[in-house]
Every structure is written in C-alpha cells, then in structure tokens.
Amino acid sequence: MCTDDGLAAVLTADRALLHWRAVQALGDRGLAEHAVQETLLRAWRSCARFDEDRGALRTWLLAIHRNVVVDMSRARAARPGDSGWDELGELVDSRHAHPDFSDGLVDGMLVAQLLALLPASQRAAVTEVILRDRAYQEVADEFGVPVGTVKTRVHYALRSLRKLPQCA
Fold first, then answer.
1. What is the CATH number of domain 4-102?
2. Per-residue pLDDT for the chain (168 aa), expressed as one digit of tens each?
C-alpha cells in the first residue's frame, strides 16, 4: 500500500466496493467519489501504521471508509444545504486518524458469510459484478459464458440473499 504499485493494486481491487458503499450511505455519486478519494488519502497517509496481523487490508480500508462516510454525513446534517466541497474536506481531514477496525471487520465477516451460502457460480458472478463493479459483458468474457448467464446468476443470487432472514 505504501508504494505507487501498492496503491494502484488497492485502486484496482477495492475502488468499486468503496464507491458502491459510499453511494449507498450518502445517496450522492459526487459525494461518494469524494469519500473514496478521502479514504485513499487517509490510507496513504497512515499506511505505515497498517498491521497485517490485525486484519486484512480491505478490512482496514473499509474501517477508514466508514469513518469518512460518517464524518461526511455529520457535516451534511450539521449544515444541511450549506456544506460545500471545501467545508467537507476540512471536516473529514481532521477527525478519526485511527480507524475503528471492529465495524469493518463485522461488515467483512457478514459479507463473507452471506457469499458462502451461494453456489460457487453465483458467488463468483456476484463478487465480480456487484462487489467489484465490473460490466456483465466483461465478466461473461472472463468466465467464458454468455452475458445472459452471468445476469441470471446474479439475479438468482440476489433473490436468494433477499429471502434470508434479516440480521438484527
């Protein structure tokens, strides 16, 4: 993570997931992109403090990301309609230098448990299309199947997950 190649690998692997989660939490694609950039900036600045023994890199990034999204949400709530990009940047920059690993760890474990319930073909399709935000056609080409097959796998996987009991 602390090198240009490491950062590029993180961007390739996790950017889509971070963006998707930010859009879900903030409801705004522009703010979501800002949240992803702020997350990566915080991670870059504190990459020397990352401890692989405490958890995976993705879990660490998701913890940082959660703090960024919370900061942005609080800033919007404090000044509804009055928060511009400059103010948000100042607010998110100064808080939560050390991420809380527990929330990211729980989220990661929940996603892993849910994906484990799916058949391998559906799990692979959901991982690529939903979590990695890749195009159906791109995934179909990689898997060597028609695009309709990938769409069907994702559809049935999401339908199966929706039928699971809600976690409280």
1. 1.10.1740.10
2. 667 777 777 777 778 888 888 888 888 788 888 888 888 888 888 877 877 777 777 887 888 888 888 888 887 776 655 555 555 555 554 444 445 555 565 566 677 788 888 899 999 998 898 888 889 999 999 999 999 999 999 999 888 888 776 543
> Which amino acid does the sequence have at 148?
G
Q: Of the candidates 20, 1, 21, which has an alpha carbon nearest to the alpha carbon of residue 11?
A: 1
Find out whether 48 and 98 touch, Cβ atoms under 8 Å: no
For residue 132, the 8-state DSSP code is: S
Handedness of CA 161, 112, 131, 17 (dihedral sign): positive
Number of H helices, E strands in the chain: 8, 0
Residues across the chain: 168
For 54, 71, 155, 166, the CA distances from 35, given in Å and listed in that order, are: 24, 10, 29, 28
Residue 34 vs residues 8, 139, 165, 167: alpha-carbon distances, Å: 18, 27, 34, 30
Query: What's the fold here for domain 117-162?
Result: Arc Repressor Mutant, subunit A (1.10.10)
Q: Give residue limits of the domains in the chain.
A: 4-102, 117-162
Taking Cα atoms as reference points, which of 71, 70, 8 lies closest to residue 40? 8
